[in-house]
Design brief:
The chain is an all-beta fold and about 120 residues long. It is built from no helices and eleven strands.
């Protein structure tokens, strides 16, 4: 089994920055792709960013140029640096471990393990 724990959420004003971190523990001897998804109240969980096991990055269009996903060590710890935050970025952000086909790197269905999430609130 794999456990994922996110940290770094909080309240920030529009235009500000936050850095989220996700640490994977358990069955992490293999390098996996990892992703970030977010879920706002009343909305479905949506893709934000991902990094493949070969360190190729992918982003949802609305966060391109503002968010950066990176791997903090050789294995399964990732960060999401968020800059120029907007009120519409407010959501619970979840880290996930990619266990499916590379074709599903931007889809919830490609992820087999999820963290509990961390709240990000951007005030206007």
């Amino acid at each position: 089994q794999v456990q994922l724990v996110e940290s770094g959420g909080g309240l920030v004003q529009a235009g500000g920055s936050l850095r989220l971190s996700c640490v994977a523990s358990g069955r992490t001897s293999t390098k996996y792709g990892m992703g970030w998804f977010r879920q706002a109240p009343g909305k479905e969980r949506e893709f934000v960013a991902a990094i493949t096991k070969n360190d190729v990055t992918h982003y949802e269009d609305s966060v391109k140029g503002r968010f950066t996903i990176s791997r903090e060590n050789a294995r399964n710890t990732v960060s999401l640096q968020m800059s120029n935050l907007k009120p519409e970025d407010t959501a619970v952000y979840h880290c996930a471990l990619h266990t499916g086909s590379l074709l599903w790197i931007m889809d919830r269905g490609g992820y087999g393990y999820w963290g509990q999430g961390t709240q990000v609130t951007v005030s206007s």
